[in-house]
Write a structure and sequence with these properties.
Largest sheet: 4 strands, antiparallel
Order of helices and strands: EEHEEEHHEEHHEEEEHHEEHHH
Radius of gyration: 19 Å
Helix content: 40-55%
Oligomer: single chain
Strand content: 15-25%
Shape: globular
Number of helices: 10
Length: 295
Amino acid sequence: PIILEKDNECIWFVNEKVIKFSDDKEFIKNRVKRSKLIKDFVPEITDTSENMYAYKKVDGEVLSNKVNIPKFINLLEASSIFWKDIELSREELNNFKNKCLDFYKVKTEKRINLFFNKFHHKDTITYINGERIPKIEDLILELDWNNLKDGIPSEFHGDFHFENILYSYKSKKFIFLDWRQDFANNIKCGDRYYDLAKLMHGLIVNHKIIQDNLYSINWSNDEINFDLNRKFNLVQCENYFISWLNNNNYSSRKVYLLTSLIYLNIAGLHHYPYSELLFSLGKSMLYQNMQQVYK
């Protein structure tokens, strides 16, 4: 399997079992709880401990290996069943929006600081692939957070990209792996837009491309140049996804803005120089989409 390393997590494949480890006990506890809430779409967990859980290895193929437009359409149809609306009272809805604001804004600010501290960069005006882009702090201040926090309360996966989606030819169904343990500390309700953005982020940055080092990043003071190979079938899926979003009354621009924030969030969690690519891509995408939305 194509798994990008994280500092505090491990995964093993032993005797037809998948064993997941985290040094965060609450992470494991909530991951197990959520598996019961979305049991029709994820493998059944068979063993647990404070820092681990295990499930039987699923007979299927990772969707990133052979995705095409027909399979992608089928995935969106299955996902639309998975993303059940959750009705909230007025008070609950207001609290949900505040949680979205915390999840998108406060967490992003913390993760950006983590990136700068970990990789010894400063927040400056930069030229990314020749385009002058303001400080990330200024971009964050100018974002329309009222729009971004106005999410859709629903069932959610939380890390919804092709490496976490299997297709079983035997059962003719999609199986979701590595679901998020919570959304802003809520294990039952999340923002559907986050899953949509996670799906978009995986269409643009493919794990196999990163594993094979099919990208480049050169960061020198305030000048950054990067390049990223992309699979043609994923570009096709992205183009279809944009049409699907618009046809189903979602905001594709909002999805791209949240996708940008996702790259900024995960940059500090991954290895160098992939970390720099993620941050540069996130900052560039954020600026470009803000120009489109707010010009």
